[in-house]
Every structure is written in C-alpha cells, then in structure tokens.
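[Automated response] Your request has been received and processed.

Submitted sequence:
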Amino acid sequence: MTLSFSVTFDYRCPFARNAHESVVAGVRAGRDWDVTFVPFSLDQVHADDDTPAVWDRPADERGTGVHALEWGIAVRDTHPERFFDWHLATFAARHDEGRRLTEVTVLRDVAAAVGLDADAIASHVAGGAPLRALATEHTAIARSHAVFGVPTFVVGEHAMFVRLMDRGGPDDIDRVLDLVEFGSLNELKHTRIPR
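Generated structure:
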C-alpha cells in the first residue's frame, strides 16, 4: 500500500540533507512512497514578527536561503524528472563543497551539472511563481501542522520534526514514518549521541 507523506526542506540545514538523501534513496530503491517535498524557509522562521515576510521583501533582503528554495521549487515544478538529482546536488554544493547558495552562479552550476537549462530555470524564477509557491506552501504547512523547522515529516494530521544523524538510509525513514502517527509520543530526544 502506498504511503503518502510530505517532508519539509531548506538547503541550508544539514539534518534536512540527511533526511532527504534517505528519502530519495528509498524512492529510488522502490519504496512505495508518494512524497511531497515542501519548501520551508528558515529565514522566515527566524524573522522578527515586526518585519515583512521574506517573500514580501526586495530580493536582496530575503535572507540566505530563499533564492535556492526558489530554484528548487522551479525544478520540482517544471522538471520533476530531474528534481532528485537537483535536490541532492544542491545539498552537496552547500554541505560538501561549502558553496554559497546565495550566489546565482552556484545555482546555475548545479542546474547545468544535472542536465538542466539554467537559463530556463532562472527565467522561471524571475517570473515569480516559485516565490509565490514558497509563500503559499510554507504558510500552509506552518498553519495546518504547526511546522517550525526542517525536516518535518507530515502524515495525515500528524507531523514530526526529526534530526537524523546518518545519510542515505531508507530504513531510517521507515522508522520515522512508523513513529509519526504515534500520537502519544510528544518528544523523544537522546541526551547524547555516542559516536
């Protein structure tokens, strides 16, 4: 039976990277998952209440993660067959290579490396649809499920923020999905992680 769930992302978060690599690995390995990838702006979460939302600000005042999210949404919505490649490569550019995702040249490089037309993606972003999608999707999931960070897994009415220590493990996602609907569990946190 297909399991439908959503998972939030912001490319700046290493824990989002761990979870998303695991989700993608699971889908590619044949897990019967119907996954919705929901952009969630950490810039917006950390904004002061008395300032405009990041998507209502001029482009150069939106924060460090918004532009990469716009590109991710553009790829997700216009080239879904390339989204996994883009998604993993963007996390790698940030966390393996230490590249600044605020630089459009970096986003163009990632797009080209996964076989996308960077000019077409940039044009779609410039048209504003990805920014509007970010505002809509971020706001909706924050309101409907009280989401405050990434990665948060949402199954039906249940949502769970998690921090996985390892990457690329679909079995870890199976465990998370088993716990999401366990409504009696409010919080589970190891006091330390033996490594």
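Summary generated for your ticket: Helices lie at 14-28, 42-45, 66-78, 83-95, 104-113, 118-126, 129-145, 170-180. The beta strands are 3-9, 33-39, 152-155, 158-161.
If you did not submit this request, please reply to this message.
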